[in-house]
Design brief:
The protein is of the alpha/beta class. It folds into 3 domains: 92 residues, Translation factors (Elongation Factor Tu (Ef-tu), domain 3); 116 residues, 3-Layer(aba) Sandwich (Rossmann fold); 50 residues, no CATH class. 20% of the residues lie in helices and 34% in strands. A hairpin with a 2-residue loop joins β5 and β6. Bound molecules: flavin-adenine dinucleotide (FAD) and FE2/S2 (inorganic) cluster.
Length: 262
C-alpha cells in the first residue's frame, strides 16, 4: 500500500451524476489488482476529515481512473477537480476479486456506479483468456457511460430507454437462455438490493457469484472497526470489508447486515 500526492490528469462528467478522475501513479498502477480500491482525500482541509473509498475503475499503463456518483461533500469536491490539481491517494486497499480458476466465461453484472470495478476486471480476464460479457443496468440511458469502457456490454434500463427493458437479473436470464449457463462465473457490484436478487437467482441455479460491497467505511485499513459485515460461513461472526473484502462469495456473507448506501 502506498500513499502519494498525485496530479489530476483528466476529469470529466461521463453520464448523469457520474464523474471520472484520472491520475498517474506508477507504483499504485503496478500494484493494483481488479476489485481493489483507493482511499482518496478530497482536499487538505479537516472537512471532510475522512478519506473516501473508490474502486479502481481502469488502469492504462500508469494511468489510474476512478468513476463516481456525487452523493455528498467529499464526492462534490472530487467532481470539481481539474487537470493539474493535487490529490492525496492511498492504495491499493482490500482483497482483489478471486478471478483465477477453471471457467470459460465471466459475466460481470453491475448496477449504477457499481460499474466501477468492471473495466479493470474485464481487462484482466481477457488477458487470462476468458470470455467476458458485461451486463450493466441503470434507471435510464442518461445514467450510463456508454463509451466503450465495458467489454461486450449488454445494457438494461428500468425505463427501456437503452437495451434490455428491465433489470440486470432479467437481462442475465435472457443471456443465459441464449448462451447457456455451463462454465460461467459471475462477478457483481451494485446496490445491495440488486446483489440480493442476483444472489437468489444464482443460488437457485447453482451459479457461482462473487460480489463487491460498497459499505460505509472510515479508516479503510482495518483500524477503526467501522466496516463490519456478518459472515454466514466459517468461524468468524464478522469480518471487516476494508481488509477482508470488499469482494466476497455471496454465500459467505449476510448481505442484510450492511446498510445499503445507494
Ligand atoms: C470499497 C468501496 C468502494 C467504493 N467505490 C466507489 C466507486 O467506485 N464509486 C462511487 O461512486 N462510490 C464508491 N464507493 C462509495 C463512496 O465511498 C461514497 O459514495 C463516498 O464515500 C461518499 O462520500 P461523500 O463525502 O460524497 O458523501 P457523504 O457526505 O459522506 O455521504 C453522503 C451519502 O453517501 C453515503 N456514504 C457515506 N460514506 C459512504 C461510504 N463510504 N460508502 C458508501 N456510501 C457512503 C451516506 O450514507 C450518505 O447517504 C465505495 C465505497 C467502498 C466502501
Ligand atoms: S474502515 Fe476502518 S476498519 Fe474498515
Amino acid at each position: 500500500m502506498f500513499q502519494e500526492t498525485v496530479s489530476i490528469l483528466h476529469s470529466a462528467q461521463v453520464a448523469e451524476n457520474v464523474y471520472t478522475l484520472e491520475f498517474v501513479s506508477e507504483r499504485i498502477a503496478h500494484a493494483t489488482l481488479p476489485g481493489q480500491f483507493l482511499n482518496l482525500k478530497p482536499d487538505d482541509s479537516f472537512d471532510p476529515l475522512l478519506r473516501r473509498a473508490y474502486s479502481v475503475h481502469r488502469i492504462r499503463e500508469d494511468r489510474i481512473e476512478v468513476i463516481f456518483n456525487v452523493v455528498g461533500k467529499g464526492s462534490r469536491i472530487l467532481a470539481a477537480k481539474e487537470p493539474g490539481d493535487p490529490l492525496d491517494v492511498m492504495g491499493p486497499l482490500g482483497v482483489p476479486f478471486h478471478y483465477e480458476g477453471e471457467y470459460g466465461t465471466a459475466i460481470l453484472v453491475s448496477g449504477g456506479v457499481g460499474i466501477a470495478p468492471m473495466p479493470i476486471l474485464g481487462d484482466r480476464l481477457l488477458a487470462l483468456g476468458k470470455s467476458v460479457v458485461n451486463i450493466h443496468g441503470a434507471r435510464t440511458a442518461g445514467m450510463i457511460a456508454n463509451d466503450g469502457r465495458l467489454t461486450n456490454p449488454i445494457f438494461a434500463t428500468d425505463d427501456g430507454s437503452l437495451g434490455f427493458h428491465g433489470n440486470v437479473v432479467g437481462a442475465l436470464d435472457a443471456w443465459l437462455h441464449d448462451h447457456g449457463a455451463s462454465n460461467v462465473r459471475l462477478f457483481a457490484c451494485g446496490p445491495n438490493r440488486m446483489l440480493g436478487a442476483l444472489g437468489e437467482y444464482c443460488n437457485a441455479r447453482g451459479l457461482p457469484l462473487e460480489v463487491s460491497l460498497e459499505c460505509q467505511m472510515a479508516c479503510g485499513i482495518g483500524i477503526c472497526q467501522g466496516c463490519p459485515v456478518e459472515m454466514a460461513t466459517g468461524n468468524r461472526k464478522y469480518t471487516l470489508v476494508c481488509t477482508h473484502g470488499p469482494n466476497y462469495d455471496i454465500n459467505d456473507i449476510v448481505l442484510d447486515s450492511i446498510p445499503s448506501v445507494h
